[in-house]
Amino acid sequence: MVFYEKIRQKTTDATDEGITLKRFCKYYDMYDKKVIDLVAFKSVLEKLGCFFKEEEIVAMFNRRDLDRRGYINYEDYAAIMLRIGSGKKLNPNPVFDMAAKGTGF
Q1: Cα 67 to Cα 94: distance, rounded to the nearest angstrom
Q2: What tens digit of pLDDT does each residue of 43-81 get?
Q3: Strand ranges, E, within 1-105
């Protein structure tokens, strides 16, 4: 949930949460393959201001590495962020409400 909230905070009125996540991930996608590995994922988290223990980062990464190939397709992940976000800075479904419903990350 902290990860989503940090993305939401970095989202401007002209963009949405999905675009914000893609922008951060694309910076670390050296070969423009639309994927990031664990090292790049850690860098994205740090760039967003998210600091977790190593085992928490690995768990977050593994949860998003759906096919267990060692990387995350950030375009697919950005689509998820777009669906749970409003596309605006003020989210009508705050992350805390999502946690109460058990739908948060």
Answers
A1: 29
A2: 999 999 999 999 999 999 999 898 899 999 999 888 887
A3: 35-37, 71-73
Rg of the chain in Å (alpha carbons): 13
How many residues in the chain? 105
pLDDT at 19 over 80: yes
* DSSP 8-state symbol, 86: -
Structure tokens at 10: 């970095």
Residue with tokens 């596309």, as numbered in its chain? 87
Give CA torsion, residues 11, 40, 72, 29, to 10 deg. Answer: 80
DSSP annotation of 70 reads: S
